[in-house]
Amino acid sequence: MLDLKGYGWLLWDGVQLTVMVSVVSMVGASVVGMVAALARLGRCGALSLLVEAYTTVVRGIPELVLLLLVYYGAPTLVQDLAATFGHKVVVSINPFAAGIATITFIYGAFASEVFRAAYLNVPAGQHEAAAVLGLSRLAALRLVILPQLFRYALPGLGNVWMVLVKATALISVIQLPELMRNADVAARATRMPFTFFLVACLIYLAITLASMWGQARAEGWASRGVVGGRL
Amino acid sequence: MLAFLADHLGAFANGALITLQYTAASCLFGAILAVPIALMRLSRRAEAFWPATAYVFFFRGTPLLAQIFLIYYGSGQFRQGLESLGLWSLFREPWFCAVLTLSLNTGAYSSEIVRGALLAVPHGEVEAAMALGLSPLQRLRLVVLPRALAAAWPAYTNEIVYQIQATSLVSIITVMDITGVARVIASRNFAFYEAFATAAAFYLAIVYLVILVAKRIEKRLHAHLDEVESVGKRIGGP
Amino acid sequence: MRAAAYLLLASLLLVAPAAAQQLPDPLKIATEGAYPPFNYLDDQGKVQGFEIDLARAMCDEMKVTCEFVVQDWDGLIPGLLSQKYDAIIASLYITDERRQRIAFSDKYYQVPARFVVPKSSDLKITPEGMKGAVVGTQRATSFERFLRDRFPGIDLRVYATMDEAYLDLKSGRIDALMGDVVAASEGFLKKPDGAGFEFRGPEYTGSTWFGYGAGVGVRKEDAYIAKAFSGAIAKLRANGVYKKLSTKWFGFDVYGG
């Protein structure tokens, strides 16, 4: 019925790389998002302005263009800039690094929105209670605010993850052999585009389904200390 | 950089026009699709609920790039069948496949926005309409939909903004939109950062212009309310 | 696990250029992997093809090990300039325009370009006869240049790879395709998919567009690498290895006049 003409293992290699790129980018985006959210919520005006500029740019530029800019544009830009100062440098970014950097950069902005909203969701009384207990700002953040923030942020982060996984398909355009790229290679070689792109779509759907299940479990876990606490 | 712009600004402007056309067409068809799909998803009848749900799940659960490849190159695999249906002359054209995919994609996302807005219509208003003796269809047309569409507008603005960016993928099936123009110019002149930075600037300008207009419309829709702003890329799993 | 290797490779390199005349070992060679039968990816994702076999033979001659990097056509030359690899072996034609950017070895094959059309088509291959016809080819190739200059009236569609143009010719989205006679014949016409198609019109060889055959591309400061490749090509021509490989892949000598 479904004859993959020997390209099944190539797709499987692609799936592994897709999952790996997604996980690494998601971790990166969460870190960037957390830092950006703290900068935005902090008292330093210049910093929060910088973060605002960052999110503004990310919202206005397509992922594909940003990816091409990073992969093809950045190395030549650095070289040209260095050349005007009489230096000769070589910058090389491989597709894996360029892809992860771009996806992290873009989804970091969305993760920062999620964290910011989650932070604002933590009741003011919690901050006050921490202060009354004599906790320092850092200790209050670590012991009181972050655990709760995580619970409020989980649904939003789950959404970011699901969009991010699909966004990794774009890295195929700069020849990273992930799922989409390998499906494309197989489709061209066998001249069976419908078959291979459909299989690719079904695999993405399976990843999405697995993610939804995982998210439900994670939200249950994060709300374990709260009676009727499922958000 | 200035010399680069002087040489290629015309080509980019043409690309921008294509980008706007594809955005407008797909948003229009997507919006037309969204309302019936949302109503089907809220229906209690299985034959309405399941097809709509499967459609939304598929188009929200897979990458747009895969959908474009599937419909464009995939349809080529079924040329005979499409020809006998008289549809091949449409599927033959890259613009048709592009607009079809983009519309189906945004239709799925928009229907979820509409569904959310429909669920948010206060029950009291529906009851009031019932008390006035309006038929179900009249209730939908006169009370529920106007109310829901006004509520959906901020989220729908996000969807339009996302759609502008999503059109960049049509460059992959030979359409010369902003990204397509940038790729040709970049590889022909070895002007990579110039070309892609210019493309990025064009998208930024278009996106923020659209947001500006959308805000104006939002003010009209909510003349009687204080609305909180929210504009960004669409975020949401199935 | 293959994926793990990519994690290790994920790095941003800042390298000072070395002026050593010693050939890099391993020698990193970029190829497109989408231009059968010259270079393509098999079902394991590994590169295969005439150019791959030839590159291996050349590396043996030069006593270095070669390592292949798959790079899309658009980015081949930028990737070379940013030192992602040391040489390009990807049916890259030696043209005067490209010579302003990079250096080339001597040519290692040369074939003319030609239009491919459906047998049933009544298209006349003249600028007037092609007016309004939808013609496909690969982006940023000599073919694209040639079509833009010599056939301004056509509706030109440019694809990222030749394979995609074949797909669209087969499905009937484009009326004609331009490619080189060997790739089009071996990669398409002789396959079951190519049954209803044929070459039409003259063979084109003008050096303004198609240059002086396909050569190994290297950075200008690495002219010694090009020289080493030129030497290897000459040896393989002389000792019959080239002929053996060419016969294996094409059934004839693809070196050209």
From TrEMBL, chain A:
GO terms for cellular component: ATP-binding cassette (ABC) transporter complex. Keywords: Cell inner membrane, Cell membrane, Membrane, Transmembrane, Transmembrane helix, Transport. The keyword Transcription regulation does not apply. Residues 15-215 form the ABC transmembrane type-1 domain. It is a multi-pass membrane protein. Its main location: membrane. One of its GO terms (molecular function) is transmembrane transporter activity. It is found in: Cell inner membrane; Cell membrane. Gene3D superfamilies: MetI-like. The chain crosses the membrane at residues 20-41, 89-110, 152-174, 194-214. PANTHER family: CATIONIC AMINO ACID TRANSPORTER, MEMBRANE COMPONENT (PTHR30133). Belongs to the binding-protein-dependent transport system permease family. HisMQ subfamily. This is Amino acid ABC transporter membrane protein 1, PAAT family.
UniProtKB/TrEMBL annotation, chain B:
It is a multi-pass membrane protein. Residues 16-214 form the ABC transmembrane type-1 domain. Keywords: Cell inner membrane, Cell membrane, Membrane, Transmembrane, Transmembrane helix, Transport. GO terms for biological process: amino acid transport. It is found in: Cell inner membrane; Cell membrane. Signal peptide: none annotated. The chain crosses the membrane at residues 20-40, 52-73, 190-214. It comes from the Bacteria. SUPFAM superfamilies: MetI-like. One of its GO terms (molecular function) is transmembrane transporter activity. Pfam families: BPD_transp_1. InterPro entries: AA_ABC_transptr_permease_3TM (IPR010065), ArtM/GltK/GlnP/TcyL/YhdX-like (IPR043429), MetI-like (IPR000515), MetI-like_sf (IPR035906). Belongs to the binding-protein-dependent transport system permease family. HisMQ subfamily. This is Amino acid ABC transporter membrane protein 2, PAAT family. It comes from Tistlia consotensis USBA 355.
UniProtKB/TrEMBL annotation, chain C:
The keyword tRNA processing does not apply. Keywords: Signal. It is found in: Cell envelope. Residues 1-20 form the signal peptide. Its main location: other. SUPFAM superfamilies: Periplasmic binding protein-like II. Residues 26-253 form the Solute-binding protein family 3/N-terminal domain. GO terms for cellular component: cell envelope. It comes from the Bacteria. The keyword 4Fe-4S does not apply. InterPro entries: SBP_3_CS, Solute-binding_3/MltF_N. Belongs to the bacterial solute-binding protein 3 family. This is Amino acid ABC transporter substrate-binding protein, PAAT family.
